Amino acid sequence: MNTAPPIPPVRVTMTAEAAARATHKAPPCGSPAPAGRHTREAADRAAALVDAATAQAYARDGAVCLRGLLTPAELSLLRAGIDANLAAPSPRAIVASRPDDPGFFIEDFCNWREIAPYRELIFGSALAAVAARLMQSRTARLYHDHMLTKEPGTRQPTPWHQDQPYYNVDGIQNVSFWIPADPVSRAATLEFAAGTHRGPWLMPRTFMTHEARWFPEGTLAELPDIEATRGRADAPHPIIGWALEPGDAVAFHMLTLHATGGVEPGRRRRVFSVRFLGDDMRHAPRRWKTSPEFPGLADELPAGATMDHPLFPLLWSDGDG
């Protein structure tokens, strides 16, 4: 979603755990994906995390807060994975902060096959089961992972935007988890414009130069001025957000408008996002480069097909466990 300047070295001291796990390579693309955790334990944990009120809030607002989504052991996996990722960013990584920013903002995508802790977290936790309950879907299929780290003092904001217009999928049953590995204050957290997941699709633009590099100019509506009604009782889309502790998460729909500011000096913000697809999601090849990009997928998966491909393993279906 940004033009990527060269990536300078990121100063990371990788733990022994991260180094050991990072040496465990995933199978090559196109080989069978490892089995997910289809257990009663995952189903019970999902039911505890997503009760009827939480599911209703997700359907109404397009975003909810999930306290304690990760166990302490899962949080350790997450931190090990992010450490390994920062120590050796993939070719897909981008720097999303300006050269004169006193901090540093880096993003990386689609690394679950290469980084063992990411893979163990995604496949061995209750994330897919929680996703299925939030989406009200019989199934939950992994779409992709996304690491976002803002170093202390980073000023670069992430402007209001929807995610789905950048992607190569259509449908409404989807969810993204935004999971911090560090405490996140209310001022630095991800915010949402409640109810915007009901549409319409809005014009995606590059974050720093505001260019329309995806849908042609004029083909989608422009973003409304969300900030103009911040705090007003009559706001059509109230702004919601939560301070978060490590292991907490927010879950949001790919069409929900969201944004975040920079981070305070002395406070680092490492975040891992995992995105899932439900029953009605379909492949929607674009004429332009999507973010993230899946090179060659259009040759293997026709338009309108379910995302049944080794890149997008099915991790949950009802009746499992």
TL;DR?
This protein has 321 residues and is α+β, with helices and mostly antiparallel strands. The protein has one domain: Jelly Rolls.
Question: What can you see in these coordinates?
Answer:
- With 321 residues, the chain is α+β, with helices and mostly antiparallel strands.
- It has one domain (41-317): q2cbj1_9rhob like domain (Jelly Rolls).
- The protein has seven helices and 14 strands.
- The chain has helices at 16-22, 40-49, 52-61, 72-87, 116-124, 127-135, 297-300, and strands at 63-66, 94-95, 105-109, 139-150, 158-161, 169-170, 174-180, 191-193, 239-241, 249-252, 258-260, 269-277, 282-283, 314-317.
- The strands form three sheets. Strands 1, 2, 3, 4, 7, 10, 12 and 14 form an eight-stranded antiparallel beta sheet that branches.
- Helix 1 packs across helix 4 (72-87) and helix 4 (72-87) packs antiparallel against helix 5 (116-124).
- The longest helix has 16 residues, at 72-87.
- The protein is globular and about 50 Å long.
- It starts with 15 loop residues before the first helix and ends with a strand.
- The relative contact order is 0.22.
